[in-house]
Amino acid sequence: MDDRKRFEQLIGAVLDHEGGLSNVPEDPGGLTKYGISLRAYPCLGANGIRNLTVEQAKDIYYRDWWLRLRCSEIQDDRLAQKLLDTCVNVGKSAGVKILQGALREIGQLVSVDGVIGPKTIAAANRADSDALLAAMRRLQVEHYESLIRRNPKLERFRRGWMARAAF
């Protein structure tokens, strides 16, 4: 299957989780549409974020997230989708650390450095996907709980974050 077609099949979950236009004061991303934030993409400007189309958002996710995270090299669709969705929500480095921490928990010897390299990809492809996904979900919950402990104003996002971690 063509990589872009595979991406198109898997990006829907990210778009569903991220939703449409939002500008919640407690959200560190600020003005956001489809998960594309003004904070992360200041070059778009506020009007660019407000006028962003789904297709433009997909192009950004493919170029800046899917390809840079090397999701196309991850054989299991569920794992590629989980990595993409997690990184979009928590950031690339933190999301990759969740993957790497989960890999270590299930016995894969990788560094937890937040860098997606050939060793992380190979370990992910060797791993039992069900066990790896379960460990990722647990570590994602721990990540969110840590954020809420450090900043209690983020409590308002707990329900959505926990649902997302369970995905």
Percent range of helical residues: 55-70%
CATH-assigned fold name: Chitosanase, subunit A, domain 1
Order of helices and strands: HEEHHHHHHH
For the report, how would you describe the main beta sheet? 2 strands, antiparallel
For the record, what is the CATH homologous superfamily label? Chitosanase, subunit A, domain 1
Category by helix and strand content? mainly alpha
The Cα radius of gyration reads: 16 Å
Task: Report the principal-axis shape.
Answer: globular
The first-level CATH class is given as Mainly Alpha
Strand content: under 5%
Mean pLDDT: 95
The CATH architecture can be given as Up-down Bundle
What is the topological layout?
Elements: H1 3-18, E1 32-33, E2 36-37, H2 45-50, H3 54-66, H4 77-90, H5 92-105, H6 118-126, H7 129-150, H8 158-166
Antiparallel strand pairs: 1-2
Note down, in words, how this protein is organized.
It contains eight helices and two strands, in the order αββααααααα. It has one domain: Chitosanase, subunit A, domain 1, CATH 1.20.141. Strand 1 and strand 2 form a beta hairpin. Helices cover 62% and strands 2% of the residues. The chain starts with a helix and ends with a helix. The longest helix has 22 residues.
Properties at a glance:
167 residues, mainly alpha, Chitosanase, subunit A, domain 1, two-stranded antiparallel sheet, 8 helices, 2% strand, globular
Structure described in brief:
It is built from eight helices and two strands, in the order αββααααααα. It is an all-alpha fold and 167 residues long. Helix 4 (77-90) packs parallel to helix 7 and helix 7 runs antiparallel to helix 8 (158-166).
